[in-house]
């Protein structure tokens, strides 16, 4: 049992860190089987083999890691990473300092094990902790109903986005959130047909950028942010992977659905580009990459809601970055310039979906040996400068346009409890809180300061903002003040979800449900 104590002590350490939700009963039975005295050597050997077969899957099941089936599915994608990125990931998973700390902890354990009966301590811990939880729950029931905790006062005032957690019943709170989101929908009213009211919509979907990443990269004062007419400061992307992020954005006209529902058909009215097409827009697709990884381009074409759209050719566009899988990533400004030149041949307003993976983890700048983490601030500065320069190109043309800057998810530049830097299996608030900005190009009315939208919002609010502009163009001479377009936008709490993992906001951090259905609370 001496060596097994390390296994159970590790579990207790991870539990108190908020990174593990132990199955107390299963672990207690496991401990009792391990301490059971057995005289015959071959039976002890069989017990050891069976224990090893149980220990690793049990630990994985209790952790915040994605479902094992999902991990196996991702194995094929991981094998496509280039060797330099795999080395970089290995160094993040097992940094030298952590390795030496682990060795030191094991040495200290074996020294103290001579005088301390760790087996007894482990057994007491795995009995007393669940017993304490049970007593605490019974006492809470005796004290009567617990007042609901509202994660956001702004959301509570708005309705349709409040997340009330009664006691610690996060499952019930999630159920109420689902029921609230299910019927929500944005309806586009007829567009103004006058030529002076028409404008393009240029939607720039940016991989790997959150408010937390802007802070870590020291880019909160980048000029691009100050050029937006509208800036969302609590915008939930809901996910932490590119494919689901694209699906949610392209289905922005409807409320937030569970992760599994992303891969099922939805009513046509949920597709924002379909709604724009009905109002006279020509939808188009452009990417600064080939879109083949994880069939990203398939997710886009299947969910844009308009059949037959082909992505723009990248032939001849200069390569600026090598991706994590060694595929080429084109220069953003050059790619957008290519699209803009082709756009001039199209009559009437155009709605573009442009996706860029310039900031993706594992990317390497051409001619540079810097790691992807170290090069991130440089890549970010270049991307934001490119978007700003492209807006200047559009402005110089005189054509009216609404530029929508919306990231997919964060890059997780800093490690969080339960996952290393760059790992995004847990859609934490730091990863899904995105800097979303909207800029009116060639707007001649009174601009005023940037309209900061601080209420908890998501794709539904962005869709409503665009719908307000389409039906009552801000570019026409008699348009209302810009602040009016953002009044009474629908609010959505910051509920994150990946395959098997859900996060809910709490006043001090977030609660997470793992693949086993167990909830843990992480205070920030």
TrEMBL record:
Membrane-traversing stretches: 20-38, 45-61, 93-111, 118-135
Domain of life from the UniProt record: Bacteria
Keyword entries, A-Z: Membrane, Transmembrane, Transmembrane helix
InterPro entries: BcsG
Keyword Cytoplasm: no
UniProt keyword DNA-binding present: no
NCBIfam families with a match to the protein in the record: cellulose_yhjU
Protein name: Cellulose synthase operon protein YhjU
